[in-house]
Amino acid sequence: MTTVSIFETWATIGTVAVTAVAGDILTAGAMRKIGDLDEIRAHSGLAGAIKAVVTCPMFLLGVGSMALSFFSLLFTLSVVDVSLAAPASAAITYIGNAFAAKLFLKENVDRRRWFAAIFVCIGVFLLSK
Length: 129
Prior knowledge:
- By secondary structure, this protein is mostly helical.
- Helix content is 86%, strand content 0%.
């Protein structure tokens, strides 16, 4: 494994997290916009439900973001120890999803979830030392 700076380590981990959050939020927003797939399937069949999903630009952007996240993770794992990269990117994604869900999807993120996010931050901090 090559030696990378602290900045490079956290930049690659951050890239994984940001693209994962974008993928999650875009996909969730798209599915809310599309509606209940069971109802669509009941009216238009399985082909109609599939068409509703794959013709939604927001869904396609979400899938693209998830693909970028996956390839960013592959790159990150090639230069950063998995014992740091995997939990740190997952933790940052968890926290980012809570903020983005509240901001973009107008979800109610209760106090318990914020406390969980704080504990996740503490855990990532302890892992990075």
